[in-house]
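Student: Hello, beginner here. Can you help me understand the protein record under this note? Any guidance would be welcome.
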Amino acid sequence: MTFKLEDHNILMVDDDQHILDLLITVFEKEGFQNILKAATGAEALFITKQYNPDIILLDVMLPDTDGFTLCNKIRSKTDVPILFLTAKTTDLDKLQGFSFGGDDYITKPFNPLEVVARVKAQLKRSTKVPARYSRKKIYDFSSFNIDPNTGRLIVNGERIECPTQEMKLLLYFCEHPNQILSKHQIYKDVWGELYGGDSTVMVHVRRLREKIEEDPSRPKWIKTVRGLGYIFEVKTNEEL
């Protein structure tokens, strides 16, 4: 299927009208046609429920809430990509953003064309089932299974919501069982970008462990190999 920008709804959440106007102008010039906007958390939640956007740009500092809390609420309704736009630039702020379910973190001031590029990249990768995983076998393990054709993760018989980037990471591990994978390699292959630091990979691994591991502090599946990266440890009889 051809990727068309005009087929996607994008929600921009920011109480700074100047920033919204700038982003909307640039995004429209780049081919986006369905742009929704909100200045408060309440408006963002309403629009998300009514219009089901395909991607959300989310400011952290809002008049009625903070973007991290809002992201957590949005995550209970949808797993579409969420990109934070914020003046908060510390590593702790970024880790917090990822821990609440964000897929990317863009600091202010920013180049609007960079924002467009990141949104395009997320949209190309965030179809419910990534194209390169379509029509593949179901990965069935002793305590969980994942269907790449539907994007469903079942843990102990219960369906678990899994945001797009976490799903891609889990599928990547499933495709590379019993291999030591460096953080650099994982980031390059899963995020499709040059290496941006350990924190992004570490946070997403931690969130996956919380979903699939019986004891995330003592993981059975996604294990840390000190100084080298991670290994998705699978016994031969545990995989289809």
